[in-house]
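Supplementary Methods S3. Input chains for the assembly prediction are listed below.
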Amino acid sequence: MPGSLINDLGNPVEPFLRSDRMPHIWCPGCGIGTTVNSFARALIESKIDLQSLALVSGIGCTGRVAGYVKLDSFHTTHGRAIPFATGLKLANPKLNVVVYSGDGDLSAIGGNHLIHAARRNIDLKVICVNNLIYAMTGGQTAPTTPDHSITSTNPYGVFEPSFNLPHLVEAAGAVYVARWTTFHVRQLSRSISEAFQKKGFSFIEVISPCPTLYQRRNKLGDGLDAMKYYKEKSKVRHGAPTNEVGLTMTGEIVVGKFVDRDRPDYQTMMRTQYTESLGERFVEQPEMVCDCS
Amino acid sequence: MAKGRVSIVVERCKACGFCVEFCPTKVLALSSAFNSKGYHPPHVVHPEKCSGCDLCGMYCPDFAIYATKVLAGGGDR
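Predicted structure tokens for the full assembly:
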């Protein structure tokens, strides 16, 4: 095209990545990179100050996100992303703390922390990439693995009922609960921006393909087939009752924003209680200011 | 004239095919060429159809592709 100037700003998500660590270790067809894309675009759109943002990951495929983003990030021990993030938030209430982890890390070994963070309504944005299996360790049954699927620890089919994560966190007290798949990139990005506007425990579940372990063992094709399945079988139902949004292996996936409510968050409740019982004697700790420039 | 242009970082591509499948105007196809890791990266088959919507960039799990808008008259974005 002679005469026309091309925008050479490069990939808009590049400033959010540690380019020296690319290409990443995620398998071809894995959706975690797509969720990182949506997350980076949500950061661009919501114009969040990156100096006031911290990202915490646990262990697992999704846990690698902390190592690939050029943000203040920490790769915690297995399942302890939420406790670490809680500490960050309590010590520095001005920080926007994002927990970016997988279903195994958040709902299995970190399941206790997940429900208690939701109960306390700590101001965290939790992005849970749900690939329905323990992927990094070799495809064992996770608490989110749907009925009848084949995994390395259940070669004759899973018979345990699985967790319905939106229902779990809603019952525990989260103020914002949404679910999208890696097919819904723009909706996911908008949802993450919305969660940044909320004060309290926000939980966004993202269904993602795992072609290497989940799809292959269950003969569900590759990553692209999973994306086509999401496109075909997902149904947007905002405000759907979360007890009806459980996942099955090949059935319908209900996506959308299920819960958006307001409830005082942990620090507000703490302040109210202490002011009530201690009155004048309650002196709030001065804000921690970190001059990182 | 095309409204957008696709840029591909061939060496990052893992040939998952998301961009080829979900491009709304079907600009891309997987090529028969290899990159150094042995994957077949996409190439642009219909450059004139690109609208610069950057949906390929949003879907790419490997941050290997993005589209930018080209304004008629020589300006950018």
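Residues 14-265 of chain A form a domain with the Rossmann fold fold (CATH 3.40.50.970). Residues 1-7 of chain A have pLDDT under 50 and may be disordered.
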